[in-house]
Write a structure and sequence with these properties.
Layout: H1 8-26, E1 32-34, H2 41-51, H3 78-88, E2 95-97, H4 102-116, E3 132-137, H5 141-149, E4 153-160, E5 163-164, H6 166-174, E6 179-184, H7 198-206, E7 215-219, H8 238-244, E8 251-256, E9 268-271, H9 274-287, H10 293-303, H11 306-334, E10 342-343, E11 352-355, H12 361-370, E12 373-375, E13 392-395, H13 402-427
Parallel strand pairs: 1-12, 3-4, 3-6, 6-7, 7-8
Antiparallel strand pairs: 2-9, 4-5, 8-9, 10-11, 11-13
The protein binds pyridoxal-5'-phosphate (PLP).
Pyridoxal-5'-phosphate binds near residues 37, 103, 185, 221 and 258.
């Protein structure tokens, strides 16, 4: 029965029963973690098999006619650029291969912009009185952490099914040159799992920005992370689109193999315009002697080409699909009939975004924690850690075993019901 149709007496009774279930679950002393989007050990085992017998030492000279065991080839080996170019539907010349983390590349980019600006800046961003960034939300907490770290004011932009609210984005950038950029996770967004529609991409590529040095941080973290091989969200190359509208330098595209091979031991890439590449390389050559080319080669040998990556991702998806289904099926069965929350059913990525009744997210997460289930902290998906509706909860179903996940989601649904009943009873006069 829908909670909104229950009388006060029925709600009180429901609460009593839920408290019994909750105490039972607490007595199990569970220790489960659904907080971060990490691959599980079955996925890592599949990947380890692919990498197990790779020899990237005997032969070290390939297309660049250069011993990749040595210093040099600063922007990465050609074969790795070709691999990312194929995956991003771009050109190898537009790509720099980085180290083991795309987030690191993003942080370094911000750092450069703060210290020196880019080729279109009047002055370094740190010398501006105010810098502001558009943050489609809910979004990725670590993006927001970078802005906070550099004291960049964040403007929350609602995230819709087709991407950020573009009317708001266009209005924000048109006449205000303190707005210097926007964060975007265009495919299977973290946490909603939405993928931007073609019209959103086009509007972002062609919109008028007052700030000449405005940049889109295009974090394509989940670009080949499909759960179903017959239902894939795929988008156009944003750099090509920006070029079409003569805004060649507008976008820095980032990607990595963190959730294709090994998180923390993969390779990353920036794909951007010629002049941005030059601007970035001018800084990078001071910053590092070059990234790990042996690991680039290791990845190229492991996957060979786009097809190799896609086939590998299909194997990983076989492990992930049942986990997403455990969560979605349980929510459908236990929460849907009560009509107290909504959630997304993504076609890829690493998260399920759950929207509790307003004002309940903190309480749910607190109750889960007390019962031994750790979730991403409340508000984390919004700038400054503040969800104005206290509603969004990012569920990360990928890491626990299926059995652990079943237990964790059982706790979660009881906590959702309990927090909601407590809230509703508190509002009845
Ligand atoms: C949207 C997004 N970007 C970047 C990352 C981190 O990527 P990397 O491991 O390449 O630094 C994550 C990891 O969860 C993510 O969700």
């Amino acid at each position: 029965m829908k909670y909104c149709l229950m009388t006060k007496e029925q709600l009180v009774k429901e609460k009593e029963q839920l408290l019994i279930s909750y105490d039972n679950l607490k007595s199990k002393h569970l220790k489960l973690d659904m907080s971060r989007g990490k691959p599980n050990s079955d996925q890592l085992d599949i990947t380890a098999k692919v990498f197990k017998n790779i020899d990237c030492y005997s032969k070290r000279i390939y297309k660049d006619n250069f011993d990749i065991g040595n210093y040099g080839l600063f922007s990465g080996i050609t074969e790795a650029k070709e691999l990312f170019a194929e995956l991003l539907d771009g050109n190898p010349e537009d790509i720099i291969i980085g180290g083991n983390s795309s987030l690191n590349l993003m942080y370094d980019m911000f750092s450069q912009l703060m210290m020196s600006g880019n080729q279109d800046s009047v002055r370094p961003w740190c010398k501006e009185e105010k810098i502001r960034f558009l943050c489609p939300s809910p979004g990725y907490d670590r993006h927001f952490a970078i802005c906070e770290h550099f004291n960049i004011e964040m403007i929350t932009i609602p995230m819709n099914e087709d991407g950020p609210d573009m009317d708001m984005v266009e209005a924000a950038v048109k006449d205000d040159d303190t707005v210097k950029g926007i964060w975007c996770v265009p495919v299977y967004s973290n946490p909603d799992g939405y993928s931007y529609k073609a019209t959103t991409l086009e509007r972002l590529a062609k919109m008028q920005t007052k700030a000449k040095d405005f940049r889109i941080f295009w974090d394509n973290a989940y670009f080949v992370h499909h759960l179903y091989s017959d239902k894939k969200d795929e988008i156009e190359n944003m750099l090509s689109l920006c070029r079409q509208y003569h805004n060649d330098d507008r976008v820095y595209m980032f990607a990595s193999t963190s959730k294709i091979s090994f998180p923390g031991a993969g390779i990353s890439a920036i794909c951007t315009s010629k002049s941005n590449i030059q601007n970035i390389m001018d800084r990078m050559k001071i910053q590092t002697i070059g990234y790990d080319k042996i690991n680039m080669l290791r990845h190229v040998i492991a996957f060979k080409d786009r097809d190799g990556v896609i086939k590998h991702m299909e194997k990983l998806a076989e492990v992930l699909r049942p986990k997403f289904e455990i969560v979605i099926n349980t929510l459908d069965k236990e929460i849907k009939p009560l009509d107290i929350a909504r959630w997304n059913t993504p076609l890829g990525g690493y998260f399920i975004s759950f929207y509790a009744m307003e004002g309940c997210a903190k309480k749910i997460i607190e109750l889960c924690k007390e019962a031994g289930v750790v979730l991403t902290s409340a508000g984390a998906t919004y700038p400054y850690g503040k969800d104005p509706s206290d509603s969004n909860i990012r569920l990360a179903p990928t890491y626990p075993s299926d059995n652990e996940l079943e237990q964790a989601i059982e706790v979660f649904v009881v906590c959702v019901k309990l927090a909601t009943v407590i809230k509703m009873l508190g509002e009845i006069k």
